[in-house]
TrEMBL record:
CDD domains assigned: SET_SETD9 (cd10537)
Domain of life, source organism: Eukaryota
Protein name: SET domain-containing protein 9
Organism: Holothuria leucospilota
SUPFAM superfamilies: SET domain (SSF82199)
Gene3D superfamilies linked: SET domain
Residue ranges constituting the SET domain according to the UniProt record: 109-287
Amino acid sequence: MQRRLKAFWESYKYRFVPWIVANLKNRSARSVSSSQDDILTHVEVEESLLDFFNALARNDRLPSYGMETERSCQDLESKSESEGRQFTRGSCKMKKKKKDPLEVMFENCGFAIECSPSRLKGGGTGVLVTKGVIPRNSVVAMYPGTVYLPSEPILLQSVGNPFIFRCSDGLLIDGFNRRISKIIYKSCSQRDRLGTEYLSSDLTWVTKSLQNPMNVGQFVNNHTKEYSANVAYQEFDVSHRFPIELRKYLPNVFYSANLLHQRPLRTVVLISLRNIQAGEELLSSYFTLIH
């Protein structure tokens, strides 16, 4: 009896998710064919992420502002005085200081995005382009959250949760950064830590201080009749070849233990459909129907 119940639960792909049912009437649809759904190739997405993540990693290795730099100059000044040499502040080679991740994004990608009050009526929090121009067919953001297989429980997490994303194969991503969803994500991320040195995923998107400013995809609002979609979702599986030291910028983690070693990590990126100017809000189509 127990086996039959377990088999039934695991085969029940389309589970009841309260938020989806309650909000179905307010969602619009985009119909595409499966062969045309991907805007960028897997390689193009991976190269774009690696380029940006490496820039973030180089910045993270720099000293914090005003600490090591000032100390180095003071040490050099003391040494010069003891040796009877003249010291000027201009002779002190100031080390590069760590930048805000948004600065790194602008320098590397040519644009910056941030969460901000939406300009849509009743839109709540949205994502705005605050600097630069997003070129067409660019990786703009990532959809963060815990990744659930079709057979795994998400009923309690889904109650009052407007941030559940359904992938084409039935996987669900819970992008809520509060309550039980936040607790589960942090627990799973710490569980999958790669030794003592490396994190397997980004822990900062559930806080106000993001180390990867791309991890705000859950706040992108749905398009309206007046404002059309300028970004689209695309699923991207992170291969096991992805550098260990850069995984700390990925905003997703599997709910199941050890699943990371059995299959590629599912992520969802947002791709720009056209050039998007500074001051514009990112808008997508919430439902994509694949036939």
